[in-house]
Give the backbone structure.
Amino acid sequence: MLLSRLAAALSLPAPDRDSDVLGVTHNADWVKPGDVFVAIRGAKFDGHAFIPEVIERGAVAVVGQGWEGEASVPYLKVPHAREALADLAAELRGHPSRALKVVGVTGTDGKTTTSWLTLHLLRSAGLKTGLLSTVGYQRPDGELHHFPAHFTTPEAPQVQATLSEILEAGGEAAVLESSSHALQLDRVRGVAYDVAVWTNLTPEHLDFHGTMEDYFLAKKRLVDWAEFAVVNADDAWGRRLDEKPRWTYGVDHDADWRAFDIRDVPGGLEFAVTSPLGSFDARLPMIGRFNVHNALGAMAAAARLGATLDELRDGLARFAGVPGRMQIVAAEPVRVIVDFAHTPPSLEKALSALRPTTLGRLIVVIGSAGGLRDPGKRAPLGETATRLADVAIFTEEDHRDTPLDDILNEMARGAREAGRSNFLLVGDRREAIRAAIERAEPGDTVLLAGKGAEDILERTHETVPWDEAAEARRALRPAP
Ligand SMILES: CC(=O)N[C@H]1[C@@H](OP(=O)(O)OP(=O)(O)OC[C@H]2O[C@@H](n3ccc(=O)[nH]c3=O)[C@H](O)[C@@H]2O)O[C@H](CO)[C@@H](O)[C@@H]1O[C@H](C)C(=O)N[C@@H](C)C(=O)N[C@H](CCC(=O)O)C(=O)O
Ligand SMILES: Nc1ncnc2c1ncn2[C@@H]1O[C@H](COP(=O)(O)OP(=O)(O)OP(=O)(O)O)[C@@H](O)[C@H]1O
């Protein structure tokens, strides 16, 4: 696309020198020949400092809010660099969101889970759907990919590129987890949202947003931009969002989509639902009652895009979980869960959530990372695991250049100093998983903690591909 056309999209006059533009980026390291570089003045860096470097790399123009220096390529001055970045990215990609049904999910907690549930329900309703979330992104084929920089919602060029990939792969819909940072920093500006899902708002990220009111206003942008809102009626902030056409959902407050009679069962949750589509009994293979809210929000969003009551009910019962997050790999006779809890508080939360629905014993497999990654947590992890599980197996978890035995001994020390001996050390993670599953009897729960959906395991001299859920399934198969 010609630079002059992009300038027009920013309401700027044509630059002196026109050229063909191939891409746009805010990151100097990512500039390729033919790209426009948008120089952002951020909290840590001034993108203008990288102008000589990006020209060397082949940038054909620079966009920014004003600069005194001399450049050998056109400099386009704009009132707001981040807005320009988003507008250029959308223009270059041909505004893919306009051709997709887009569901945005925001809120302090539950965004990732609600996004994955919505993805699954839309697919269950036959819509070819893609996803962009903290856990990674998917085109409609369902393969999980990761961005080079770890974000819930990446910067606008990656958002637009992902939406464009989803569309080109035959996608009809996309679910976009939209963090408050993304909304505040224009990463999702220009996305044509059809539905905004609001999960909840509790104090978080106030270092960035300042006050709860400003945090609320950042997230509210999603609702303002969307055509229709799906709002948690049990959230006081959500109840303020009454200007948009919307459906509400909830458990404690009257709502369009409401759940009653919630029961924990070994395979997950069961509850009754009343909704604008009718009433039905729902089964959700997930642990944690807060997931009822996530399921209601996801069902309402999918229904808004055309899913029927039968598709919602049947889809919900077949949800495979969010990869690596309290993911139920097997429900019976032994329940096996994969979760990414790798700190003492998150391990405590995961084990405490599993205890009430564990009929027999709770067995946990856990390690602790090497290198500089918080060595102080090793002994507390050992203590927590042996306090809340009946049996703990300490194993490797990316020990890198730290001797594995040192880590395992430290975890064991934490347990011993608390007067416990209900643990064993199995250095090889595959063997540890096998040992846990072999020990388990019907009614027991095995929690494989720490790795979640990570796809590599780092040892001292090698990095091996890793798939914790596949390892669990392998260990569950009877020996040939
Ligand atoms: C608060 C926040 O989100 N800040 C993000 C923002 O930083 P910033 O505007 O201050 O920019 P900066 O780091 O000063 O850099 C200025 C410019 O120089 C460029 N630069 C900088 C250095 C360099 O070597 N080369 C280079 O080109 C940068 O790409 C940028 O364009 O833009 C940067 C460039 O994309 C981000 O790296 C940075 O994310 C920081 C590291 C971050 O930690 N963000 C987290 C909090 C975040 O966004 N989290 C949410 C999820 C939150 C949740 O709900 O849990 C998310 O969506 O992931
Ligand atoms: N609806 C909810 N209400 C309250 N807590 C929740 C809710 N959903 C999930 N949680 C809690 O928050 C944790 C993270 O859930 P999830 O990943 O879905 O949220 P998130 O908002 O996407 O956070 P992140 O961006 O860090 O992934 C869960 O393990 C659970 O403890």
Q: What stands out?
A: The first helix runs from residue 3 to 9. Residues 338 and 448 are 5 Å apart (CA to CA). The pocket of adenosine-5'-triphosphate (ligand 2) is lined by residues 109-113, 134, 152, 199-200, 290, 293-294 (CB under 6 Å). The longest strand covers residues 257-265.
